[in-house]
Design brief:
- The protein is mostly beta strands and about 260 residues long.
- About 10% of the residues lie in helices and about 55% in strands.
- The protein is built from three helices and 14 strands.
- A hairpin with a 2-residue loop joins strand 1 and strand 2.
- Helix 1 crosses helix 3.
- It starts with a helix and ends with a strand.
């Protein structure tokens, strides 16, 4: 069932973005932990759910974030394309410095785990990708100006909210490197289950970095992202047009610890 497969993949690809679109982009951390919940739907039919937990903490005397997120398809989609995913990132608030990124997922019963350890003092990142219990890839890369997917969007959200503004980032997933451009193309009033918000409309473009010149990844060229038009820029919606309708990810609720 193609729509179910696409819905599961949207849950997987969005897991890093939704984790990162949950906190204010300042050098000072909020004292309160937060939980956000999302729904993935195909043409209005719920296909998956996702949860994000953000915890401010202190590491070696510095302010830091620990962000944990999980996503899973529902029982109906599980019949065709079951997906379970968990991602965890730790990074310093200072200059958005990543320390570790871990992504565990299970797709159709096959488990994979990607771990990236960043060593800022060395400007190196070390990754390990294991699939089905077998090590598939080990990489040792120069990490100068290189970010994991979650930290990258935190950094992108620290810029201007003016229309036409764009963030140009280089991202390392532990398996591949990508150039990602996020451009603010307009402002809309957006209604999601969590409420109605003034929002910024963002268009993503993604290139996989190879030795040869490549066009942007066509799988994301029909996607649009909406975030709140304020300093926090909370992710409200991702909409991806497909040949049989549209897949959307919408904010269900947001809770802040007292």
């Amino acid at each position: 069932m193609i729509p179910a497969r696409i819905a599961a993949r949207l849950a997987a690809s969005a897991i890093a973005f939704i984790a990162s679109a949950a906190q204010a982009q300042t050098s000072e951390l909020s004292d309160a932990a937060q939980t956000l919940r999302y729904r993935v739907a195909w043409n209005g039919l719920t296909a998956a759910r996702a949860t994000v937990n953000i915890k401010p903490e202190e590491l070696a005397g510095e302010s830091a974030y620990t962000v944990e997120t999980s996503a899973r398809t529902n029982s109906f989609v599980d019949l065709f394309y079951p997906f379970r995913g968990n991602a965890r990132v730790v990074f310093l608030a200072r200059e958005h410095t990543p320390l570790q990124f871990v992504f565990d997922r299970e797709i159709r019963g096959e488990r994979s785990r990607t771990t990236v350890d960043f060593r800022p003092s060395e400007n190196r990142a070390y990754s390990l990708y294991v699939k089905g219990g077998v090590t598939k890839k080990r990489l040792d890369v120069d990490s100068l100006d290189l970010l994991d997917p979650i930290t990258a969007v935190f950094k992108a959200r620290s810029g201007s909210r003016a229309i036409g503004t764009q963030a140009d980032l280089e991202i390392f997933t532990g398996e591949s490197r990508y150039r990602v451009v996020l451009r603010i193309d307009g402002k809309d009033r957006v209604e999601v289950p969590a409420g109605t918000f003034d929002a910024l409309r963002v268009t993503p473009k993604v290139w996989k970095i190879r030795d040869d010149q490549q066009p942007p990844d066509p799988r994301l060229q029909a996607a649009t992202i909406w975030v709140t038009d304020d300093e926090e820029r909370v992710l409200l919606r991702i909409r991806s047009e497909i040949f049989v309708g549209a897949v959307t990810l919408d904010l269900l609720s947001r809770e802040t610890a007292s």
